[in-house]
């Protein structure tokens, strides 16, 4: 999450995007990036909370940019390509990542995760007090003391539950630059992939396939698949499946719908294909997953 030596000063254009698959695994973790600008977008399967510290930061998520001020918290699902594209001199970002499975269990109301799986991000100003919390969690999670790590986990859960109940409607505007930098060929390539990822996030519950995903970016399916793989490290079809499985896990936890209804509402064409994909990718059948996670939720 640290962008290396690159630094964007106030008033300059965002750092050009480099193509290339970057898939990361973070799990429950808290980090500080003092050089947050990223030349290359990345993705992961965690829910990501990013707090701007010491100045403004520009977030790019599925091709949509938003500039936020110091003390603003941005919450999004990391499966969509994203990066920090620019930052004020001296600005840093404190990150909290929560595995999607945990976020689904913790979000009792279901409001936050439902929005994130639709490709939304929540932009929440006035969260400067979270900086001290994130710093404490970073020390507790990395300190090797199980009791402290458990306490940090419980506090992170409380934060997500509170956000789900109290957060306002999402804010997802472009940065609004009057004179944006000229778009390069690499920018166009990445933008089209971002358009496809955003289309999948918004429409995965519908009977769409690779042809429809490619059409959203005005590309031939073969070209779209190659471009998507080059930027994200996966295919449109695999990403579509990931979105549907994530939504199915959410529905299993926050609704009483039976497995057939969950399969339909998550976008699967049949219960048998849903059952097979879920068991293969999640590691257990849907009903068993529901029982185990609900029991674990009730223990806390």
From TrEMBL:
Domain of life: Bacteria
MF annotations from Gene Ontology: DNA-binding transcription factor activity; sequence-specific DNA binding
Coiled coil: none
Gene3D superfamilies reported in the protein's UniProt record: Homeodomain-like
Residues of the signal peptide: none
InterPro entries to which the protein is assigned, alphabetical: AraC_XylS_family_regulators (IPR050204), Homeodomain-like_sf (IPR009057), HTH_AraC (IPR018060), HTH_AraC-typ_CS (IPR018062)
PROSITE patterns per the UniProt record, alphabetical: HTH_ARAC_FAMILY_1, HTH_ARAC_FAMILY_2
Membrane-spanning parts: none
Record region (Disordered): 168-188
Keywords: DNA-binding, Transcription, Transcription regulation
Domain HTH araC/xylS-type: 194-292
Annotated SMART domains: HTH_ARAC
Extent of Acidic residues compositional bias: 171-181
Protein name: Transcriptional regulator, AraC family
Species this protein is from: Geodermatophilus saharensis
């Amino acid at each position: 999450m640290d962008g290396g030596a690159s630094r964007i000063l106030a008033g300059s254009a965002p750092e050009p995007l480099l193509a290339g698959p970057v898939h990361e695994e973070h799990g429950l973790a808290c980090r500080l990036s003092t050089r947050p600008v990223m030349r290359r977008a990345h993705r992961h399967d965690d829910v990501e909370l990013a707090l701007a510290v010491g100045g403004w930061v520009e977030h790019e998520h599925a091709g949509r940019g938003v500039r936020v001020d110091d003390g603003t918290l941005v919450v999004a699902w990391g499966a969509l390509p994203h990066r920090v594209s620019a930052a004020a001199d001296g600005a840093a970002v404190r990150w909290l990542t929560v595995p999607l499975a945990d976020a689904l269990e913790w979000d009792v109301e279901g409001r936050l995760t439902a929005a994130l799986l639709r490709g939304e991000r929540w932009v929440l100003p006035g969260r400067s007090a979270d900086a001290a919390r994130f710093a404490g969690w970073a020390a507790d999670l990395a300190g090797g003391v199980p009791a402290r790590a458990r306490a940090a986990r419980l506090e992170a859960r409380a934060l997500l539950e509170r956000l789900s109940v109290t957060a306002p409607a999402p804010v997802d505007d472009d940065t609004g630059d009057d004179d944006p930098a000229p778009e390069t060929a690499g920018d166009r390539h990445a933008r089209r992939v971002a358009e496809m990822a955003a289309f999948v996030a918004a429409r995965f519950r519908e009977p769409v396939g690779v042809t429809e995903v490619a059409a959203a970016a005005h590309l031939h399916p073969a070209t779209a698949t190659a471009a998507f793989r080059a930027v994200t490290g996966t295919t449109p079809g695999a990403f579509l499946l990931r979105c549907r499985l994530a939504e199915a896990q959410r529905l299993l936890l926050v609704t009483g719908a039976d497995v057939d209804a969950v399969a339909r509402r998550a976008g699967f064409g049949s219960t048998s294909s849903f059952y097979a994909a879920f068991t293969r990718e999640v590691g257990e059948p849907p009903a068993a997953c529901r029982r185990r996670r609900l029991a674990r939720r009730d223990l806390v």
